[in-house]
Amino acid sequence: MTPEEFRRAGHELIDFIADHLDTSAGADGAPNERSVSRRPVQPTVAPGDVRAALPEHPPTERETFDAVMADVERVIVPGITNWQHPGWFAYFPANVSYPSILGELLSAGLGVQGMSWVTSPACTEVETLMLDWMQELLGLPESFRSTSDTGGGVIQGSASEATLVAILSARHRATNGAVNAGGDTTGLVAYATSQSHSSIEKGLRIAGIGTDRMRTVPHDEQFAMRPDALREMIAADLAAGLVPFFVNANHGSTSSMAFDPSAEIGTICREHGIWFHVDGAMAGIAALVPEYRWVNSGIELADSYCTNPHKWMGVNFDCTTYWTGDRASLLGALSILPDYLRSAAAESGAVIDYRDWQIPLGRRFRALKLWFTIRMDGVDAFRERIRRDVQLTQSLATAARADHRFEVVAPHPLNLLCLAARAGNETTDALIERANASGTALFTRTVLDGRSVLRISIGSHTTRSEHVDAAWELLQRSV
Ligand code: PLP
Fold first, then answer.
1. Which CATH class is domain 105-376?
2. By CB atoms within 10 Å of each CB, which of 55, 333, 345, 473 scores lowest?
3. Distances (CA, A) of 395 to 63, 223, 284, 307
4. Among 160, 321, 455, which is best to mutate for testing ligand 1, by the most ligand atoms less than 8 A from CB?
5. CA distance 360 to 107
């Protein structure tokens, strides 16, 4: 591809993306023909359809951009699940924004590898600044700032990677670093509730702890961890000669948006020197809004914390912000310095080499999309959107309470509403299937204490009140 061909294709691709994301009504009262809102939320393809629509073997001749785009329109777009659709109520929001897309594009165009400061100083320094900006915007503890003696922040690819990094740091601290040499994790025990994300269990497996040594701490009727039960379980494990080393608290659990009481949990962890990780992957972003700062209650006792700008904030996946107050354990767990990575800058101690803060060596310039988004969309826009989503959720909860066929089955302080059909699990399951088959909205099923539950997650940037009203009418028709 020549620079001129790239220029032309780039303009066309941006037009294509702008049309795809534009859900506003045109002169004829309808969104443009390529708008995501004119498509079903979930594609109607069967397994294997997408592959079967494309050539089995790679082309032997060079193809044009137009030919590739024809296949994008013919095969790719009809084969995607539309996370940016206004009827998106499934899983969690995974928003994009125009500034963030531009930041991604610039990152791709600059093509730098920011594994060390010396391999691209701006990549490292903008990232450090973005983590400090986010610490300030979210009102997180000063000990997480890059300027603190003991802490700092980094962009991880996902909350799952952040959790793994936290577990590895905890494992290093609990074994005084001996795990690096012997790999021995014997006796280490971790704690979380059944509401915790599956990435906790996955991280423990990867770290060689194993699920037999993951304790499921009982939760209360709000699906929040019971600190008294945690305390008892820790005491029992200590009495058995085991080593409690890691506790995860949810600040907004995936299934039910539960908030574990971190002030009490953190106090218990401090008493025993246990690493305390807080997972605010989805809900932590709400702290951008001053009146929702409570989502971070107790976080000052945490050793590590993560939240995902790639969920509710409009920064394209992947962008998890991760902070720790114990940088030494993180570096102890992950820092290895082969000769080919040595640099005078690193040895001077004046710079950060982010390769030591993550699992892979290589890393993209992900901070650009956060920087572009914060500067060009602006924090007030995020705050407005978060307030709007919470208000839409509260209105929907009021409507659901007024319909005797539905029951609200979990607290809904933010943008997730959990409903069940009073007629029982089969009715709830059939309702979800029927509503999802409509193509106009998509919901996710979960199970809370044995009960089938319909999750309604409101947070797509294209969702407005009329879409929530339409979704509620759909559910009322489908029950
Ligand atoms: N933690 C919580 C509370 C989540 O809701 C999710 C995603 O749903 C995750 C972790 C995992 O996020 P990621 O895809 O960034 O690994």
1. alpha beta
2. 55
3. 52, 22, 22, 26
4. 160
5. 18
